[in-house]
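ENTRY TYPE: paired fold submission
RECORD: A
CONTENT: sequence, then structure tokens
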Amino acid sequence: MVNPTHFDLQSLRVFLLVAEHGSLTKAAEHGQLTLSAISKRIADLESVTDCTLLIRRPRGVELTAAGRGLLEHAGRVLDRVNSMANEMSDYAVGVRGHVSLWANTSSIVQFLPVDLARFLDANQAIKISLEERSSNEIVEALKSGKADLGVFADNVPAHGIERRPYRQDELVLLVPRAHRLANEEAIGFAQTLDEDYVGLHAGSSLLARMTDAAFDAGRPLKVRIQMSSFDGICRMIEAGLGIGILPSAAIRPELVAAKLRMIKLTDPWATRTLWVGASDSATSAPEVIRLFDFLSGESDAWATGASL
């Protein structure tokens, strides 16, 4: 039986290097090691595992089945070791807490940069890892404990998650200035469904909201092109490829001033709530509670008109 205490991290790193380059010589060059040192590390691993890991070929090496198995495990082990080293480095320089925050595009574009800057200025011993994800992905990550906190849209079911209001945003219709609807001051979504739309990627809560509203109106939503960013949508609308619906605060003023027109949507769903939710497994950590309280407190400050 293989003894797990006999594995050497440096030997695993060398093995990954050899697997990546498919050659002992190239691995030695990239790892700044001698060929004999590389060969010894591989021989040590083969001794520990009691398996042949590589087959020598005229133009390099090929992994055996055992080698491919070791490659998969070695990659995960070294990733975990690197993650551990990074976390310990944070503690060494004074970081005393880490929060994994997942957020949807709307909150990242409109609100989180300023809010997180204020929070981190007052809590310099806390580190935040921010990931941009769809609202559906965020809710699943909170349920599984993959994320500590998440900011997501109100049309995504979030049963079993502790959540609080974070912000409200207004969705508006965006059209080119020369478009036939450009002179409208306000409009219902159903009145726009003859037009081609530029929308967000599949899976976004905003696209789901628009698709549901079109279904309720008994009409199809004609999405001509899909983008992954608000800026990209604006550029496509500017080029005449369709119209779009975006949060008003996410649209850069210079674009509206130049070639685009924002039109108020009269539908109730155009005013939406962004929620901040917490994972059950994370709410005992003081740094998570502190950020959760801060972000939900921003909802109160925003609602009362306090400066941000």
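RECORD: B
CONTENT: sequence, then structure tokens
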Amino acid sequence: MEFQTTAQEACYKRIEPWMHHLFGGSVVLFDDEPLFVINFGSAVASTRVIPWEENDALITTRSYVVTDINVTQELSYYLLRENNGIRFGRFALDSENDIVFEHSLVGSTCDQIELKYSVTTVVKLADNYDDEIVARWGGKRALDRWSSW
């Protein structure tokens, strides 16, 4: 695996054993990039370590909540209002208008407890919201879309 910076490499090597400890056999690693994937219920979350600034890294956990959805004004307002009450992370729309939920941590200051809460919050919120959003506005839960490939 190639890293873009030494800070990215150090962060990845520090959190890799934490991810195994926290999520056991459900964590999937990749040989070619600093990425971890876990699933919970109908949600799948990816945790990436990416370079940030000159001497740090970000640990960003993202889960696709609903894909193939028509984004309406009502849905957009709903997501914004929900963001207001969420303590860790946020809903967003990616470049294809898929609904994602993500949270980032500063790599150099992250500890195992922060990582646990960040990853579990993202995957649990995605799992909790996907059914409601699909029922009200359509689209596909991310897991359903990927399992049909």
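NOTES ON RECORD B: The beta strands are 28-29, 35-40, 43-52, 56-67, 90-93, 99-106, 140-141. DSSP finds four helices and seven strands in the chain.
STATUS: closed
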